């Protein structure tokens, strides 16, 4: 019958559901009554909280995706992965005497040297990052390139699942970005000014005012916030209210 939404059959965590086609996995499951308390976050594809593994009908390939981005397909089998155990080296940004930033990153994550270049991490990445490529950059000590190539990582951790060398690629890349930014990049003028404002107590009164708001008032303030237009060239847009910058 024309005008009716198309229904597809999917499996989620071992349970079968009939959902509306053309929806993201997250929206489709919420429409049939599932309520997600954990494993969801920004709903915009940038926080990596809603990682899933799935297979499509008549396909042997295991794929990774984000529930808020990937659409449902008939015969899709989905498994949510709200948490993936992996190595996270606790560290400070101070360098031990004699260590370079490049050596320090390798000291924290020496397993990157065991990469066998199988490419499974790059194949599984739901946002299309060449994970194997930036692992090689860390091995070569090119933190600038590693930081640039891993910048769009959403920390979903899907690449960790298939790595035969047990590399925690997202955390190694995060360390590379931190040490490169701390020791190899010049401090931006606006960042120095922001730190001076923070240390002077400039923001204390503003945050005290926000903390006195009721939940309804805070929600209304959030909904009225100024947002950067999607088509604004990088670095060109500024809000009218600049009290917080």
Architecture blueprint of SSEs:
Elements: E1 7-12, E2 15-20, H1 25-31, E3 51-55, E4 63-66, E5 76-80, H2 101-108, H3 120-124, H4 131-140, H5 143-149, H6 158-161, H7 169-183, H8 189-200, H9 204-211, H10 215-223
Parallel strand pairs: 1-5
Antiparallel strand pairs: 1-2, 3-4, 3-5
Helix pairs in contact: 2-7, 4-5, 4-7, 5-7
Describe the structure.
- There is one protein chain.
- With about 240 residues, this protein is of the alpha+beta class.
- It has 3 domains: about 5-80, Beta-grasp domain (Ubiquitin-like (UB roll), Roll); about 100-185, Alpha-helical ferredoxin (Fumarate Reductase Iron-sulfur Protein, Chain B, domain 2); about 190-225, no CATH class.
- Helices cover about 35% and strands about 10% of the residues.
- It is built from 10 helices and 5 strands.
- It has helices spanning about 25-30, 100-110, 120-125, 130-140, 145-150, 160, 170-185, 190-200, 205-210, 215-225, and strands at about 5-10, 15-20, 50-55, 65, 75-80.
- The protein has a 5-stranded mixed β-sheet with strand order 2-1-5-3-4, with helices on one face.
- A hairpin with a 7-residue loop joins strand 3 and strand 4 (about 65).
- Helix 4 (about 130-140) runs antiparallel to helix 5 (about 145-150).
- The longest helix has 15 residues, at about 170-185.
- It is flat.
- The model has no long low-confidence stretch (mean pLDDT about 90).
